Amino acid sequence: MRCEELEKLFPDYLNGDISASQKQLMDEHLSHCARCRSTLAAYEEARQHLSFLKDAPIPSDFAKATMTKVKAATTKSRSRQWLRPALGAATAVIVLAILLVTQPWGVNPQSVMAKAYAATSNLQSYRMTSSATITFEGKTIEQASEWEFAFPDRHHGKMTLDGETYEFIIISDKQYTREPSSTQSGTMYVIGLSSGSGPSKEETLELLDTLTDLEKLPDEKIDGVDCFHYRGRVDIDRMVDKRKAELDPAEPGYEERVEALERQRRMKTEVELWIGKDDYLIRQMKRDMQAPSEDTGEWDTSSSMVRYYDFNEPIEIEPPVTASGELLPGWRLVSSSPKESTFSRDVTFTIGDDDPAHQQISFRIAITNISEEVASNVRVTVHTMATNEESRSVRMEAEPSAPIDLEPGESETYCITWEYDASHTSKDELARLVNLTTVLAKYTTPDGEEAVELLFPPDVLYPSKPPPKRPPG
Amino acid sequence: MQDEAQIINLMRAGDTDAFTGIVERYQGPIIRYLDRLTGEYEVALDLAQDTFVRAYQGILKTDTSLSLQAWLYKIATNLARQHHRRKKILTFIPSAHVEEPESSLSADDYAEGNMAINEALLKVPEKQRACLVLHFVEGLKYREIAEALGISEDAVRKRVVRGCEQFRQAYRQQEVIENEV
Predict the structure, then answer these.
(1) Which CATH class is domain A81-336?
(2) Fewer C-beta within 10 Å: chain B N or C terminus?
(3) What is the pLDDT of residues A232-281, one digit of tens each?
(4) In the CATH scheme, what architecture does the domain B1-104 have?
(5) Complex ipTM, two decimals?
(6) Considering only the top CATH level, what class is A343-456?
(7) pTM to 2 decimals?
(8) Residue (of A282, A239, A293) closest to A262 by Cα position
């Protein structure tokens, strides 16, 4: 019996729905094929866990609301279904606007850009209004919004779309939204707007790095202020190549990410900037974006115009909560951003090549504290299934096992080696088992909280960012 | 309850309300499926509505050879995929700063024990996740999944096997982290 044939029979095998002779064949195969044993175990585990997932709540009025929508759809063409993606795109426009106005233009050789960078990076507050026309999958949406910012991390915005207004307050990593109560569908969903955490230096530099073909246009007056006028475009190939180079082919999800990046090559973005001649503050920005729609083959586009004003005026932005911390009516807390990494890491492992009965498995774990705060009592533990113990995984402390403190920028290298009797395990299976090893760093924050960070394997959902470059000295 | 063929005949004869029976029968599985696929409950509800709207329009227009169940899953899968693509469009705007929303799963929505499972499931790539959910949560056979997703039975088997491994890996990490904290 081949492995594939066996896999086909997993469901019946576990349900006891196979003949005695088939079962015997399967058991025989399983007794000498470690790969199939492992696959079957994974299948059984998934089956066990996922069978619990049967209780997603169904709103009591779902069928009624759906029928209303069905009837409406049969009588008129549906425009509302485009709102959600369009809203998302509009949100993205705003995010880009926020990002651009806070850009360090310093990497650009032109002195105007360098001065604009200095001026904007010193801004304590400002307001902006934006209007955009977005064509998404053949439908055109007009969108308007106004935002105010108080640095370092407070944002307050209102966005009007199709006559309905959405409001956002973003403070540090917390995002609050208020959706219109009149929304007919009741299921309008605002795609995460996460500018509140502020663009990281790396992302900011990346964008700047990809702006190209800067061209000076005739000066113009904006709000009575004389402005320089520039136009440029995003060098998408450079951005894609750069991001691709940063991906690790050994990481899970690598192919999907490369695929997603490759699709971006067809995207085009042009930006125009108006920069005050006296203060080098960005007064206005125009942005035209085109992205291919995979469904229709046509281009999705967005064209936006953003005006900036009220520079360094006092602007107060508070969370929408009462004195006792309750949310004000209509508001909800949407998200807190995932935590930034505390450690950069370089984890390598080796599997001995000699005697299968005494395989030496070694992990070398180098970490650096890339946060702004000291990490106290740092310990590194390794949890592995590549073990001959009866229990399904064992936990070991890596050396040095004594807790140490790591100041920002400080590094430590941990090592651990153990032995595994692999005489009944194939090389592939052993490599797979070792790859399933989990390495954790545990530490205490300056607030006295116990924290833990996954060092290995690389996290699929929130890939760790490359360590920020520290300022010299 | 009327059988599906009867309902479809009534609809074709102009009785829109007959479709309510279909919605009531499949709302649970379709919402669940979309919730697992997107990881966003609100989005799942929205897409589930769209699924039924499209199914309704389709029933009047076309005579599909697929079973109604497979057809609904097919529409739902396509809608989830479209949703995913839209998010992709957002994420590749130069700022790279429109993050995907966090999963909408919360202790209010689900019993606490489900959290680690849900989180781990969301780490499994979408194609494999669709197969895992249809197979283990909704109890569809490989043949039925193949029909719904428009792929071969062999492809389904491969995705299930691969998905199980990815799920196991993600779940263990989840478990270890929770225990540590």
Answers:
(1) mainly beta
(2) N
(3) 888 888 888 887 887 877 766 677 678 777 877 887 888 888 989 988 88
(4) Orthogonal Bundle (1.10)
(5) 0.80
(6) mainly beta
(7) 0.45
(8) A239
